[in-house]
Design brief:
Bound molecules: pyridoxal-5'-phosphate
CATH architecture of the largest domain: 3-Layer(aba) Sandwich
Distance between the termini: 35 Å
Order of helices and strands: HHEHHHEHEEEEEEHEEEHHHEEHEEEH
Number of strands: 16
């Protein structure tokens, strides 16, 4: 079958589709594999109970049930829910926003796709505007979303080696190339895959630079503030008139709702919701109704603060301790795990690429994400991009410990063999 250029772009060979296929097929063939390669939220009993109560309440009220199943939301999403959200976000964070600053979306992925293609790619004057990730590695789901090829570029970060085994990426402001070709900036905060939380100072500076050039900063807070708040340090929520803040219901524990929220100036919200209506007709009702119910009785804060964040924090600590024990004197670093639910491991002396390490770990019973997939739009060769792995820690504690033992054993064997294979 012959496809259009658009069809070719989205159906052609893509590293991420190949990797996801491989992960899926491997899990199906070997369900007992230790799956540290996923991005799904952990299953937290208490949180699931709270969601169940809210869903029952929604289903038990015929009018609300109709709003859930029997209606299309208006283009920007339900006005009462957007007003409620605007009032809450303003009160909690001191932001000056109204319902006109908010659009309800079908999740972060679809919202990012619309925004990236709306702001970057072929421009009316035939120029090609790019979207710059000012720090990489970044979320691998962004990689193939632009209709026009070569629309994403990224910047090598500066690398701070911290005490013990920790390291941290920072935006390399001195080399940040913000020229006329850039149509938007985007960062995830906390960052998938590194667990980095770009500091308050960095995010303010980045926003200032973007605003000075008249381009928006897309701030993807899928894991962060204001919710679900999977942030372990004192970094705070950030928004400004120049920021397009992307929130999602997924990492709160509801990826099945396919729901998210955008907070941006009304002009952008209006443009986004027109495009979203053309592409999706309307957004899902389930996420917004669940969010409304959770906000109404204060359960939103409660589950985030008392259950979600501590649950992941505990698993983070367990996996770090197990890795440190099992890697022993192997040269390795872990990115400061400041948020989200991933550990980002760096093996500077690895004699093989991350892809080969991924294969070896798969043979040994552990699935991870090879790090090279996250260096989206990087135009230079950087050895570091083949020396990292992402591990998800949102699963049973005993599995984390077993996985760490296998990772330790496998990396030690590879280092002992010492052959550089790519
Ligand atoms: C940083 C980041 N942004 C966005 C998404 C997409 O989330 P959603 O389920 O809302 O489409 C993910 C999913 O893993 C993510 O990690």
């Amino acid at each position: 079958m012959q496809f259009s250029s658009y069809g070719d772009k989205y159906t052609g060979d893509s590293g991420i589709v190949r990797l996801m296929d491989d992960l899926g097929r491997t899990m199906q063939a070997h369900p007992d594999m230790l799956m540290l390669g996923g991005g799904a939220p952990g299953r937290i009993d208490k949180v699931e109970q709270v969601f169940q109560q809210h869903l029952q309440k929604i289903a038990g009220d015929r009018q609300v049930l109709h709003e859930l199943l029997g209606s299309y939301q208006e283009p920007k999403g339900s006005e009462p829910i957007r007003s409620l959200l605007a009032a809450k976000l303003s009160a909690d964070n001191g932001w000056d926003i109204t319902a006109e600053h908010i659009a309800l979306t079908n999740g972060g992925q679809s919202a990012f796709g619309i925004l990236a293609n709306m702001l970057c790619g072929r421009m009316p004057d035939r120029s090609h505007r790019k979207l710059l990730f000012p720090i990489c590695p970044e979320y691998l789901g962004y990689a193939d979303i632009s209709v026009m090829p070569d629309t994403f570029i990224s910047q090598i970060p500066s690398v701070e080696i911290c005490d013990e085994y920790w390291f941290k990426y920072h935006i390399d402001f001195d080399n940040l190339c913000l020229d006329d070709n850039i149509g938007a900036l985007c960062v995830s905060r906390p960052t998938n895959p590194s667990g980095n939380v770009i500091t308050d100072t960095e995010i303010r500076k980045l926003d200032g630079l973007a605003a000075a050039r008249g381009i928006p900063l897309i701030l993807d807070a899928a894991y962060g503030h204001p919710f679900p708040g999977i942030v372990y340090n004192d970094a705070t929520a950030y928004w400004s008139d120049n920021v397009i803040l992307m929130l999602s219901m997924s990492k709160l524990g509801m990826p099945g709702t396919r729901s998210g929220i955008l907070v941006a100036k009304p002009e952008i919200i209006e443009a986004f919701s027109r495009a979203n209506t053309i592409l999706n007709l309307a957004s899902s009702n389930l996420g917004p109704l669940m969010l409304q119910s959770l906000m109404d009785n204060g359960d939103l804060e409660l589950v985030c603060r008392n259950h979600i964040r501590p649950w992941y924090e505990r698993r983070r600590d367990i996996l770090v301790a197990a890795l440190v024990e099992h890697l022993g004197d192997v040269p390795f670093h872990i990115h400061k795990a400041e948020g989200a639910f991933f550990l980002w491991l760096w093996f500077p002396a690895l004699p093989v690429t991350d892809m080969l390490l991924y294969q070896k770990l798969k043979e040994a019973g552990v699935l991870v994400i090879p790090g090279n997939t996250a260096f989206i739009g990087l135009q230079e060769d950087w050895d570091h991009s083949h020396q990292c792995l992402r591990l998800s820690y949102g699963l049973e504690e005993s599995k984390l410990v077993s996985a760490a033992a296998i990772i330790g054993r496998t990396v030690k064997q590879l280092l002992k063999q010492g052959v550089r294979v790519t």
